[in-house]
Specification:
The structure holds two protein chains of two kinds. By secondary structure, chain A is of the alpha/beta class. In chain A, helix 2 packs parallel to helix 4 and helix 3 runs antiparallel to helix 4. The longest helix of chain A has 17 residues. Chain A is globular. Chain B is an all-alpha fold. Chain B has one domain: Orthogonal Bundle (MetI-like fold), CATH 1.10.3720.10. Chain B is built from eleven helices and no strands. Chain B is globular and about 70 Å long. The relative contact order of chain B is 0.12. Classes of the chains: A alpha/beta, B mainly alpha.
Chain lengths: ~270, ~260
């Protein structure tokens, strides 16, 4: 499914009339079918707002989001949040089963798939445990299984591996790629970690500081599968990319001197 | 079995509760024996009296009537109080608007509500239920409103992005967050409601435990008053232990 996003503006009302906070302005991109796209941007640039718009959590927006030309309202999509967001009163299996079979979603996976995914993620032994017994990494794996069990046409991920130890995060990234390889879908993955984006993505979109828009579109020149890549490979790619575009991570790439001063005054 | 050391080492044990109850009965019996007055019958006399009332059938009849009133008033109060509490917890305008009514409801004496209900609705069962519900609903509202305010919107967003059907959102993601508050409201509600029901019966019904207590009061029949009281406390305790506590354990087992 090709995802098309065109947001003219997303504003939040502020207490001072006429001075509404503009979170996103002139954001325009598309993600081709089956592609893994990362969005990298400085904190506060509207990344999570963007995902909330795409997922339909945020509906008041001047713009349009479509999946193969259709609005995403009824589309079944997987969403992995920054925190696992499991229902603490449901067991691991019940949490994954919870999202199966919504109305208007057509085929959304089944119980067998739920069990299969959990087995695949090494959670076979804790299917009947409650989430508060699990480690942070295990909870993320449950959330990952929940996202894939509905066979999503679009998978949204909002810095899902943040606040984990690097070894745990690394294993989860590899797991994500393995499962995505088996069950291909269009992925939009948000992060502020360039190395993570380089390891995961086919292409990376860099966002400017608020109001966020796309300032650079980068195609990752790494072949898949990437399991054998060392951290040095990623590091070297990162260094050469940053050498070419020193302002990439601040999102100020291609911004004129005048505008830059203005932005810096707003974001000291 | 009555080794005190063992009992104290395991304070939650059944035997410790049993021992405590025995001590209470013992103190009661001793005081009654010393007083040696018909105004303070001992546990034995009260038990004999209870058996007599059981044989005559009046104890079961009146306790049943009162229990039916308690159950109806309890269910009505819980449902209405929960709905209002949820709305007030989620809607700031409604919360502000109805807050004054709530404070008023919390502070009107139960007796005033009972008298007014009897005057307005006559000496009827409707008046009983309305009077008890008006007394109890504000308390349910206050508790449930706290629960609704504490609802984790992030979990509801999960339900929203996965497009869950409404019934599943309600029973799997929303209500479980309210269960602790509903349980608290139910437990405090039960003990409050049966006390109010007795007053309502005393003031204007011709059956029920409250009515019987009124009659015994006229005759200074203390043994019967205590027998009825203990019998009804027993019923409420049974309900608490057989229904509410297992329900609570089941609903909160994930916390372990």
């Amino acid at each position: 499914m090709t995802l098309d996003v065109q947001i003219r503006a997303k504003t939040y009302p502020s207490r001072t009339p006429g001075k509404d906070h503009v979170a996103i302005a002139d954001l325009d991109f598309s993600v081709p079918e089956g592609q893994f796209t990362c969005i990298v941007g400085p904190s506060g640039c509207g990344k999570t707002t963007l995902l909330n718009i795409v997922s339909g959590l945020e509906r008041e927006v001047d713009g349009a989001v479509s999946l193969n030309g259709e609005p995403t309202d009824e589309a079944h999509l997987g969403y992995m949040f920054q925190t696992p967001r499991l229902m603490p009163w449901l067991t691991v299996l019940e949490n994954v089963r919870l999202v199966i079979d919504g109305p208007g979603n057509g085929e959304k996976g089944d119980e067998e798939l739920a069990r299969h995914l959990l087995e695949e993620m090494d959670l076979g032994d804790v299917m009947d445990a409650f989430p508060n017994r699990l480690s942070g990494g295990m909870m993320r794996r449950v959330a990952l299984a929940r996202a894939f069990v509905i066979k999503p046409r679009l998978l949204l991920m909002d810095e899902p591996f943040i606040s984990l130890d690097e070894p745990v995060a690394k294993r989860l990234r590899e797991l994500l790629l393995a499962i995505w390889n088996e069950r291909p879908t269009t992925v939009l993955f948000i992060t502020h970690d360039l190395s993570e984006a380089l390891f995961l993505a086919d292409s990376i979109l860099f966002m400017s500081p608020s109001p966020g828009r796309i300032v650079h579109d980068y195609t990752v020149p790494l072949a898949r599968p990437r399991v054998k890549l060392t951290s040095d490979d990623i590091h070297n790619l990162r260094q050469s990319l940053l050498k070419e575009h020193p302002d990439l991570l601040t999102g100020l790439i291609g911004v004129g001197e005048e505008e830059r001063k203005h932005t810096e005054r707003q974001h000291p | 079995m009555f080794n005190l050391k063992v009992l104290l080492a395991n304070p939650s044990s059944f035997w410790l509760r049993f021992f405590s109850l025995c001590l209470f009965l013992l103190v009661w019996a001793v005081v009654a024996a010393i007083a040696d007055s018909s105004l303070l019958p001992g546990p034995g006399a009260v038990a004999a009296n209870m058996v007599a009332h059981l044989r005559e059938g009046d104890l079961v009849y009146h306790t049943g009537i009162t229990l039916a009133r308690v159950v109806v008033a309890f269910v009505v109060s819980m449902i209405i109080g929960t709905v209002i509490g949820v709305f007030m917890g989620h809607n700031r305008t409604m919360d502000t608007f109805f807050d004054g009514w709530l404070v008023l409801g919390l502070n009107i004496p139960a007796l005033v509500i009972i008298i007014l209900c009897y005057i307005w609705f006559g000496l009827t069962e409707v008046a009983v239920v309305v009077a008890v519900a008006i007394n109890k609903i504000p308390l349910v509202v206050v508790t449930v409103r706290e629960g609704a305010r504490a609802v984790d919107r992030e979990l509801l967003q999960v339900a929203q992005v996965y497009r869950l059907p409404r019934a599943r959102i309600l029973f799997k993601t929303y209500l479980p967050q309210l269960y602790p508050y509903l349980m608290a409201a139910a437990r405090s509600g039960l003990s409050l409601i049966w006390k109010i029901v007795l007053v309502v019966e005393l003031l204007g019904r011709s059956n029920g435990v409250g009515f019987q207590l009124h009659s015994f009061f006229q005759f200074f029949d203390i043994a019967s008053i205590l027998a009825y009281t203990l019998a009804f406390v027993g019923v409420i305790l049974f309900f608490e232990m057989a229904v509410l506590r297992p329900l609570e354990v089941r609903l909160t087992r994930w916390r372990l």
